[in-house]
Amino acid sequence: MKKMRFLGVLLGLLLCATAIHAATKPDMAQRKRYKEGPGLIFRLYLKDKNHSPYSLEHPTRFLSRRSLDRRNRQHLPLDSTDLPVSPHYLRDIASDEVVVIGQSRWQNTVLVKVKDSTFIHQLDQLPCVKGHKLVWQAPDSVDVTAQRVKYHDQFDDHDKLPDELYGRSSDQIRAIQGHRLHDISMRGEGMMIAVIDGGFRNVDRIPAFQRADIRGCKDFVYPPSPTVYAETDHGTKVLSTMVINEPFYFIGTAPRSAYWLLRSEDQQTEQEVEEDYWTMAAEFADSVGCDLINSSLGYNEYDRSAMNHQLWQLDGHTAFVSQSASLLADKGIILINSAGNTGMGPWKKITVPADADNILTVGAVTPDAPHRIAPFSSIGPSQDGRVKPDIVAVGAPTFLVNGRGVISQDMGTSFAAPIVCGLTACLWQAMPEKTAKEIIELIRQTGNNREHPDNIYGYGLPNFWRAYMLGKRRNVE
User: Fold this and answer.
1) N-term to C-term CA, the chain
2) Sign of the torsion angle spanned by Cα atoms 277, 17, 19, 204
C-alpha cells in the first residue's frame, strides 16, 4: 500500500513538474509592450572607496545598532566591504544621461541606467571606474502580470483539524521535529528574518497575516512597484510557512519572529541585474540587523543567453549573487536558500546562489515517510566538490497560505526553504551564544543522511530537536 501511495505521489509530481520554475515567474497568459522604452543597465566596478566620509571607526553611520550587536556577539570584525560606496564617486558618475539606480558596498559596484552604450564608454574613462558589465537590456515586450485578487477573510472550515494543533502544517513541521522546539517556547521570539522574494500579494490585507510582526518592506527593483503587496504571491506563500499562527488551521515555523519583506525579483524579465537587486536586499537586511535571510530564488538561465551561467561557475565565488551570499555568515547572518527546481531539466544542478559557502541550501522531499526526494529538486555537488543541497525539507507538496488567503498546497524547493528558515530562527533563539557558522554546522550534523551525505539529499532531513540537545550538551561540556 505504501508503494502504491508513493507511486501516486510521484505521478502527481511528474504532472506538476512543468509548472514549477526555479524562481517566481508568473503565469504567462499574454504580453504587452514595455512602457519604459529603450535603455540599458550596467554594473560598474569601482577601484576603491577613497574620498569617503565613512570610516570603520564610526560604524553607526551606516549600520544599525542591532546589526553591530549581532556581529559583536559573534566576535566578527568589520572590514572594508562594510563601508558604503564613496559618495564622491557617485557624484562623479551621475549625470542627466546616467541615472544611478543602485549600489553594493560589499562588491563596491554601482548600477547605472543609460539610454544607449555610448554613455558607458564615457564612464569607463572616470578614474574611479575599473570596469563594467551589461546586466539588463530593455525588452520589446513583457509578460502581463496578475493584479491584486480578492482574498478570503477567514480560512475554510474544512481546513480546521480539531485534533491537531498545527492543522494543515503539521506534517511539514513534525518531519524535522520543529514542534518540539515550539513545545519549549522556542518560536523565534527576538529573531529577525528577511524574506527576499518577488512580491507579497495581499499580505497587508489578509487577516491571517495581521498578527505577524512585520517591521517593513522595501523594493530594490528598478523601477520600483507602487507596492510589493500587489506583486506576485510567491513571497506570500513563502512567508506564510513561517509566520501564520492560527491554531488547528495552520501554524508556521517561526510565528514570533520579526520580518522584513524585501523585493529583488523583477516579474517582467529575467536578467542578471536581479543578482544586483538581491545583493542590495541582502545588504539592507544586514544593515537593519536581520539574523537570517530566506531566499527562495535561484538563477541559471536568463532572457538573454549571453548572461546565462555555466556549470563550471557553481563554486560559490563566481556568480555575482553567490559572491554576495558567501559573505553572509562572516557578517553573522544565516542564509537559507532553495536548491532550485531544475532536477528534471537539462541543467539539473543547483542554481545560484544555492552554491554559496556557509549557507543552508534546501532541497525538497515528499511529506510522508520515508520522505522521497522530489524529482524536480536540484542536485549537487558544487563545482568545487562541496555537498549540495545541504539538507532537505518537505516541499512536494507544502501546505501554505496563498495570495487569496486560502490554505493550499504548492510544489517547490521554494517552500521547503522557509520551513527550515523559521526553525533555524527558533534554534538560534535557544542558543544565542552560537555563531551563524556553528548553527549551520549543527543543523547539518543532525541530518538523517549525515553518515553518508550525497548530492541528492545532502545531509538529509534535519532533526531540530536533536540539534537543540546536541548544542546544549556542547555548552555543558
Assistant:
1) 47
2) negative
* pTM tops 0.85, yes or no: yes
- CA–CA separation, 333 vs 437, rounded Å? 9
Per-residue confidence (pLDDT) for residue 26, from 0 to 100: 43
What is the spatial distance between Cα 14 and Cα 7, in angstroms, rounded to a whole number? 10
Domain limits at 246? 145-476
Distance (Å, rounded) from C-alpha 28 to C-alpha 347?
Answer: 22
Residue found by looking up cell 561540556 in the block: 477
Q: CA 24 to CA 338: how far, in whole Å?
A: 12
Distance, in Å, from the CA atom of 156 to the CA atom of 407, rounded to the nearest integer, reads: 8
Cell of 220: 530594490
- Digit-coded pLDDT (tens) for 33-92: 888 888 999 999 999 999 999 999 999 999 999 999 999 999 999 999 999 999 999 999
Joined grid coordinates for residue 172: 511539514
**Residues 282, 332: contact at Cβ < 8 Å?**
no
Domain ends where: 141, 164, 180? 141
The pLDDT tens digits for 198-251 are: 999 999 999 999 999 999 999 999 999 999 999 999 999 999 999 999 999 999
What's the total number of domains in the chain? 2
